[in-house]
Structures are given as C-alpha cells and as structure tokens.
C-alpha cells in the first residue's frame, strides 16, 4: 500500500465532519468535463469517455485539470456511476449526443435472476486510477470516490438508457416488487464493495449519487431507494488508518425527505437548488453537514449576478463556522463558460471568510 503525502487543505473533510473551518469549502459536481477546453483536448487523445475512464494516466490528468485551474477544495475521481452495471456484464456504450446505453438491459425475470455482482478484478482500472490520482494530488486537496445509488443504477439497468418517465422500471417496481428488491439487494452489496475498494485505494470521502430517487412517489422512495442507501452506508468503512472517511448521500429532488436521508447515517446530505439550506438545517440540526445548492444555470449569468446568488446560498445556510460544503445543485453544464466557475469559487471563498468575522 503506498504512503500518501499529508493533506495540506482538509477544509472539505472538516466541514463534512462539522468541525470549524476558516471558509466554506467548494467543489462542483462534474467538475472535470466538457466545459473545460483542456478536457476536450485530452478526450480527443483518449478517443471516448470510457477511453479516458479506463486509462489511469488519462483519468488522473482530467481529474487534476479543474484543480489546476481553480482553487477548489476537493477533487473527485474521474469515472462514471455506470461502470458498476458495465462490470456486471450489461454492456455499456456512450452514444455521441445521446448519452449512455446498455446492450443487455434487465427486462425479464430471467435477466434479474441471472444478475451477479461484478467479477473480481473487473473494476480494477477504477481503483488504479484512485491510487494514482491520490498520489499525484500530493496532498493538495482530498479525493472523493463515488458510486450511483442502488436505485439510480437500477434505473439505467432496467430502462437501458436515460429516461424521463421511468415507465419500464416503475412497471417492474409496482408489478414485481420481489424482482425489484432482488435487483436492489445485489446493487447495494456491489455499491458498498465498490466504495470500500475505492477507500482502500485512497479515496478520502465517498458520495452516493441518487440522481433519480426524486422520481419516486413518497413511500416508494423509502422502500426502493432510501432503504438500500441506508444499507450501503451501514456497510461502508468509515475510517482508514485512524482517519475518518465521511460519506455524502445526494438524492436529486429529495429535499422534502431531508430528515429521512439524514437518518441514513451519512455524514452529509447533498441538496439540489429547489431546497432552502436554512430550512433544511432547521430540520436536521447538526446531525449532518449540507452540500449544495447553487442552480447550475446561474453560471450562464454575469460574474456580478453569480456572486449575488452565491451570497444568497451562503446566507441561506446561515451558520458560518462549519457544516456547509458549497456545490452546485446538480452537475455543471458542458456549455458553462469557464470564467463563471472562477467567479463562483472566488465568491464562495471570499464571502464566507467575511461571514466568519461577523
Ligand atoms: O463529478 C465529476 O467530475 C466526476 C465524474 C462523474 C461523471 N459522471 C463523469 C461523466 C460523475 C460523478 C458522474 C456521475 C453520473 N453519471 C451520474 C450521477 C450524477 C448526475 O449527474 O446525476 C449519472 C446519472 C451519470 C450517467 C451519465 N454519464 C450520463 C447521463 C452521461 C451523459 C450525459 C453527458 O453529460 O454527456 C454520462 C457521461 C459522462 N460522465 C460525462 C462525464 C464527464 C460526459 C463525458 C464525455 O462525453 O466526455
């Protein structure tokens, strides 16, 4: 096991653990990606998204690009949530302009009964990338590992691609809840193993992306998404070599379930821009840190407007010494002007410092 350099900036980890920080740490979901010209240049060499993700040298290079360009407080592994179902044999393809597709989606009882956890070794390229990124970060900022939630992975596994309505998986959920639960149990164990292997490889915090939990009805969310995230969190290694490994759970569209999500045992919950951070904090107290929640569309406005909206989010959170990790409410758009991110990061750091002196 390699010895990693000591961490120079642990602001992000301290905020997640509700310990005091001098300013509010910030990172962006999808911070390495097509809005950066340097990413597009590396992607041209790698050939495709999976070409980058499966090559640890290239995955390391693109993970570090936003860290070199902006004073961000965390790096996130360059990969995708769909690597896990791909390793289960579903055949992942990224179709240019259309997004991800699976060659062998799970549609029948036989498909679900034949599903197995990923073969050992099939995700080693991810763990190699984690170790290489952590080494090359050289302690600048912590590295976040991640996975999709059992439910969100199931959405792609059953639909076979992205969806607006989720008719195929909801039909399975309501007509064959037994099959749905079988699939989700396999996913939960696979996700926990995958995150624990990232922690062993060097990830210093982990995040579960429940991008489609918000598509579920109240009641169905608790039964088919939340229950399995609770299981994942309970199986995670929360400490490595005496250092805590915080876990973040992000259900997009899940603000109205914040208290229940906070009770999963995670250290922090992610929120999209429809939530009010102050109201959520009043409900959950200091039990968890909050991550979010600027509308990514604000990055299409002018720098002064971006600053004003950043101030609103910081002020909405209300408490100024800890427990808030600034982020967007969802991934950054590929059409975002890179200068907008510079204005946003600067506004978070500078305004949050002034709040601590008041
Ligand atoms: O945040 C980061 O910088 C880390 C990298 C990361 C990617 N995907 C890279 C990526 C993370 C954390 C993800 C998570 C992910 N992937 C989610 C959950 C978060 C969310 O956005 O809700 C989901 C639903 C996916 C599935 C996925 N991957 C879709 C729908 C797409 C196509 C949409 C698009 O933007 O093209 C991807 C591809 C993908 N994953 C890209 C990147 C940078 C685009 C890659 C490219 O074409 O070069």
From TrEMBL:
Highest taxon of the lineage: Bacteria
Keywords assigned by UniProt, alphabetized: Cytoplasm, Decarboxylase, Lyase, Porphyrin biosynthesis
CDD domains in UniProt: URO-D
Matching Pfam families: URO-D
Compartments in which it is found: Cytoplasm
Pathway assigned to this chain's UniProt record: Porphyrin-containing compound metabolism; protoporphyrin-IX biosynthesis; coproporphyrinogen-III from 5-aminolevulinate: step 4/4
UniProt binding sites for substrate: 30-34, 80, 156, 211, 330
InterPro entries: UROD/MetE-like_sf, Uroporphyrinogen_deCO2ase_HemE, Uroporphyrinogen_deCOase
Keyword Kinase: no
Site (Transition state stabilizer): 80
An example Gene Ontology CC term for this record: cytosol
Catalysed reactions, semicolon-separated: uroporphyrinogen III + 4 H(+) = coproporphyrinogen III + 4 CO2
GO molecular function: uroporphyrinogen decarboxylase activity
Domain (Uroporphyrinogen decarboxylase (URO-D)): residue spans on this chain: 25-34, 144-160
Functional description taken from the UniProt entry: Catalyzes the decarboxylation of four acetate groups of uroporphyrinogen-III to yield coproporphyrinogen-III.
Family: Belongs to the uroporphyrinogen decarboxylase family.
SUBUNIT field: Homodimer.
Name of this protein: Uroporphyrinogen decarboxylase
Organism: Pseudoduganella namucuonensis
The encoding gene: hemE
């Amino acid at each position: 096991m390699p010895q990693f350099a000591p961490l120079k900036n642990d602001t992000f980890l301290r905020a997640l653990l509700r310990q005091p920080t001098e300013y509010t740490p910030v990172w962006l979901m999808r911070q390495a990606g097509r809005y950066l010209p340097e990413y597009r240049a590396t992607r041209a060499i790698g050939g495709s998204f999976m070409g980058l993700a499966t090559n640890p040298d290239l995955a390391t290079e693109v993970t570090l690009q936003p860290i070199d360009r902006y004073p961000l407080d965390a790096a996130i592994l360059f990969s995708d949530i769909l690597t896990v179902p791909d390793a289960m044999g579903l055949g992942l393809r990224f179709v240019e302009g259309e997004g991800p597709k699976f060659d062998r989606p799970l549609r029948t009882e036989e498909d679900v009964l034949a599903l197995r956890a990923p073969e050992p070794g099939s995700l080693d390229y991810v763990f190699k990338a984690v170790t290489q990124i952590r080494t090359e970060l050289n302690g600048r900022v912590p590295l976040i590992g991640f996975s999709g939630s059992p439910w969100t992975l199931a959405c792609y596994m059953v639909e076979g691609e992205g969806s607006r309505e989720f008719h195929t998986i909801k039909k399975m959920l309501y007509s064959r809840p037994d099959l749905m639960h079988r699939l989700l149990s396999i996913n939960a164990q696979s996700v926990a193993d995958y995150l624990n292997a990232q922690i062993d490889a060097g990830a210093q915090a982990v995040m579960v992306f429940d991008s489609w939990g918000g598509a579920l009805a109240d009641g169905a969310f608790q039964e088919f998404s939340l229950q399995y995230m609770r299981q994942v969190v309970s199986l995670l290694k929360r400490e490595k070599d005496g250092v805590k490994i915080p876990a973040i759970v992000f259900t997009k569209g899940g603000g109205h379930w914040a208290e229940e999500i906070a009770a999963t045992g995670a250290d922090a919950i992610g929120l999209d821009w429809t939530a009010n951070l102050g109201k959520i904090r009043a409900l959950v107290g200091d039990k968890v840190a909050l991550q979010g929640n600027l509308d990514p569309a604000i990055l299409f406005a002018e720098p002064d407007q971006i600053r004003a909206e950043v101030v609103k989010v910081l002020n909405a959170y209300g408490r100024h010494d800890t427990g808030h990790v600034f982020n967007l409410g969802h991934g950054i758009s590929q059409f975002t002007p890179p200068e907008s991110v510079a204005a946003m990061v600067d506004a978070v750091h500078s305004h949050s410092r002034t709040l601590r002196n008041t």
